[in-house]
Amino acid sequence: MFGNMISNMMVKPFQSPLFDDPKNYGLDYEDVEFKARDGVTLRGWLIKSGTDRIVVQSHFGVQCNRAGYCPKGKGFIKPWKEDISFLRQAKYLADHGYSVLMYDLRGHGESDIGTTPWVSWGPEEAKDVVAAVDFVSKHPSYRDAGIGLLSICMGAASTTYAYSLEDGLQNYPNIKAMIAVQPLLYSYFVDAFGMPGFLQRAGSKVTTERLGFDLNTKSFLPCVKDISVPTMVVQNKNDPWTNLDMVNAYFDNLTVEKEMVWLDVEKNRFAAYDYVGRSPEKLMGWFDRLVAPAH
Which of 87, 172, 192, 291 qualifies as a cystine partner to 148, CB 3.0-4.6 A? Predict the structure, then answer.
């Protein structure tokens, strides 16, 4: 019983319905859908502004979707008590001439469930990042656009795994830069979360049976060296749910132009997710400098 309960907390899909809409921000957009290489249909918003630069935004996992995070329905103990709308940074980007693709990873929001019907914390979702980049690369309006990747938590893990796939992101020279917000390994999260060992073991046993691999030993760190575009890493130094040595290792393993941004915000992991939308100008200069038209 405990094993199923803990595993459900960590890998059960569709824990967060959409709660926001680009109309609330006066944005020009269209609903879109596209398929990952394994046939899974993904859905999102294509927010339309300039045609020479576009940002592909990949959200964090389990309790999130393309709209962001909403505390409604998250139980008695909520990691953040207000909505975190990712449309805030999309609005900023659109106002500065970027189009933005915001999409739901498999098992989240309005996208279909994956061929593995559980959230994998990045290995399966990597296919979705590739599909999103492929979609905008082939879109008539954006074939010549430079692409920036805004990848948040599990989105950052998925993007990192996507650079190590044989048909992965390294095959898209139109990607010009990435911002990785708080990349996180499952094992460090569970340890930092303070879960008793017997619950960790019970949950891990069920999750390993569900996914076919052990999340405690699966790591994107060996894939970081494959990232081929300038990358900014953003991390709240007061984040109680991670291991800062792991974040430093991620940064150290990058072999491209890079910048480390340490935020000094509230002692809550979600504070950094909130910061991205509240102070986008402090981060998006990375894209302004690097994301130029593909040709």
Answer: 291
